[in-house]
Design brief:
By secondary structure, this protein is an alpha/beta fold. It folds into two domains: 181 residues, Rossmann fold (3-Layer(aba) Sandwich), CATH 3.40.50; 204 residues, Rossmann fold (3-Layer(aba) Sandwich), CATH 3.40.50. It is built from 14 helices and 15 strands. The strands form three sheets. It has a six-stranded parallel β-sheet with strand order 3-4-2-1-5-6. The N and C termini lie close together (8 Å).
C-alpha cells in the first residue's frame, strides 16, 4: 500500500517526532567523521522548519551497555565510560552547524524533563533526544517506552531507512499512538525505488550481487530469480559458485555450507530462464595484501596458494555488456576487495559505467556498495543510493519491514 508522506502532513505549529539515522562514524574526539546520514535527513528537517513545525529527533548511536547488567562496580564504571562516548551531543553540534537556529540536546530520552523541554519549543526549533538505545526498552519494542515517546509529538515521521527493518520502540511501536505516521523524503525515496524494482521494473532488469558468503544472501538470490532477467555474481561468493560448477578455486574464499545453495541457484536460474553470469577470469593474489604478487588467470586455471580478490578484465567486459543492455540495475555487494587499490578495478569500472550511462536506472543497495560509489566519486550520478544495507537487503528478499508497514496508508 502507498504510505503517507511528509508532504501530506499539516505541519504548522505541530510537534513532529521524527526518527532519523544519526548512527554515524566518529573521530577519536567524538566529532563526526562521515556526515552522510546527517545530510540525508536535512531535506525532511528543512521541510518541517519551513512549514512551521517543531522538530523532535530520535536516533540510536552504537551499541550502549545496559548498566543494570553490570556484574561489578568496576564493570559498571567501564560501561559508563563506553556509554558516555555514545551520547548524541557531538551529533547535535554538527547538526547545529548545518542548519543554524535553535538545535539542542534533550536531557534524556523520555520523562518529565524531556517533556518540559518540548513544551518550551518554538516553531523551527530542533530538539534531539538522547541515544534511544540508552533505554533498554528500545530494542525490545517496549510498549511503555513507545507510549512515552509518543507523548512528545503530534505527528510521527520516519526518515531512518537504515533502521526500519527493526521492530524497535522508536521505529515501529511508537507509530500505534499516532493518527498520522508518515515517511520522510529519504524513506519515501527508498520505498519508491525498491517498490518499483519489486513490482514494475523497467526491463531488462539486472541484479549484481557481491560480498563474501552465499549463505548471507540466500533469500535475496532466491527472490531475485523470480524478478530479474540477468543475475551477475561477483565478490568473494562467486568462488563458491565456481566450486559448485566443478572449478578449482585455490585458496579463494569458499562458503562450504553454501555449496548446495549455489547448485540450487544455478538450477533455478536455468529453470527461470535467467541469465546468470559468473566470472570467467579473476585477479589472483598470493596473499591478502595490497602489495601482494598478482596475476590474472582464467577461472579454470586457478592454482593452490592463490586467492581471487577481484574479477578479471574479460569478466568486466562480459558484465559490462549485460549492464549496457539493461534498463534497471540493482547492485548489492562489491565485486572485489575495492578497499585495496590492486583489487579495485572490477568494482570501480562497473561503478563508473553506471555513472556514465544515466539512462540506466541504477539502484545501489547501501552498505559496502554505497561506500564504494562514494569512494569512486560517482554516488551523485546514481539514480538512488540506499542509506540502509540491511534494510535494502530485506526489501530485496521480499520481506515486510516493521518500520514501513507501521506507517499510515494513504
Amino acid at each position: 500500500m502507498p504510505k503517507l508522506s511528509i508532504t501530506d502532513l499539516e505541519l504548522a505549529g505541530k510537534r513532529v517526532l521524527m526518527r532519523v539515522d544519526f548512527n554515524v562514524p566518529q573521530n577519536d574526539d567524538g566529532s563526526v567523521s562521515d556526515d552522510t546520514r546527517i545530510r540525508g535527513a536535512l531535506k525532511s528537517i528543512n521541510h518541517i522548519r519551513e512549514n512551521g513545525g517543531k522538530i523532535i529527533l530520535m536516533s540510536h548511536l552504537g551499541r550502549p551497555k545496559n548498566l543494570d547488567k553490570a556484574s561489578s562496580d568496576e564493570e559498571r564504571a567501564e560501561w559508563e565510560s563506553i556509554n558516555a562516548r555514545l551520547s548524541l551531543a557531538p551529533i547535535v553540534d554538527d547538526l547545529r552547524e548545518k542548519v543554524g537556529g535553535n538545535v539542542s540536546l534533550a536531557p534524556g530520552l523520555v520523562g518529565s524533563n524531556v517533556e518540559a523541554a518540548v513544551t518550551k519549543m518554538d516553531s523551527g526549533d530542533i530538539l534531539v533526544l538522547e541515544n534511544t538505545r540508552f533505554h533498554p526498552g528500545e530494542t525490545k519494542n517496549d510498549p511503555v517506552l513507545s507510549a512515552d515517546l509518543a507523548k512528545l509529538g503530534d505527528v510521527y515521521v520516519s526518515d531512518a531507512f537504515g533502521a526500519v527493518h527493526r521492530a524497535h520502540a522508536s521505529t515501529a511501536g511508537v507509530t500505534s499512538h499516532f493518527e498520522q505516521s508518515a515517511a520522510g523524503f529519504l524513506v519515501a525515496a527508498e520505498i519508491d525505488y525498491f517498490g518499483k524494482v519489486m513490482n514494475d521494473p523497467d526491463r531488462p532488469l539486472t541484479a549484481i550481487l557481491g560480498g563474501a558468503k552465499v549463505s548471507d544472501k540466500i533469500q535475496v538470490i532466491d527472490n531475485l530469480l523470480n524478478l530479474v532477467d540477468n543475475l551477475i555474481i561477483g565478490g568473494g561468493m562467486c568462488f563458491t559458485f565456481l566450486k559448485a560448477q566443478g572449478h578449482e578455486i585455490g585458496d579463494s574464499l569458499l562458503d562450504e555450507p553454501g555449496l548446495a545453495t549455489a547448485q540450487a541457484v544455478l538450477a533455478k536460474a536455468k529453470e527461470k530462464s535467467v541469465q546468470l553470469l559468473l566470472p570467467v577470469d579473476a585477479v589472483m593474489a598470493d596473499r591478502f595484501a595490497d602489495d601482494a604478487t598478482i596475476k590474472v588467470v582464467e577461472v579454470g586455471q586457478i592454482e593452490k596458494g592463490w586467492m581471487g580478490l577481484d574479477i578479471g578484465p574479460e569478466t568486466v567486459k562480459q558484465f559490462s555488456e549485460a549492464i549496457l543492455n539493461s534498463k534497471t540495475v540493482v547492485w548489492n555487494g562489491p565485486l572485489g576487495v575495492f578497499e585495496m587499490e590492486a583489487f579495485e578495478n572490477g568494482t570501480r569500472t562497473i561503478a563508473e559505467l553506471l555513472a556514465e550511462h544515466q539512462n540506466i536506472t541504477s539502484i545501489i543497495g547501501g552498505g559496502d556498495t554505497a561506500a564504494a560509489v562514494v569512494t569512486f566519486n560517482v554516488a551523485d550520478k546514481m539514480a538512488h543510493v540506499s542509506t540502509g544495507g540491511g534494510a535494502s537487503l530485506e526489501m530485496l528478499e521480499g520481506k515486510q519491514l516493521p518500520g514501513i508497514v507501521s506507517l499510515s496508508d494513504k
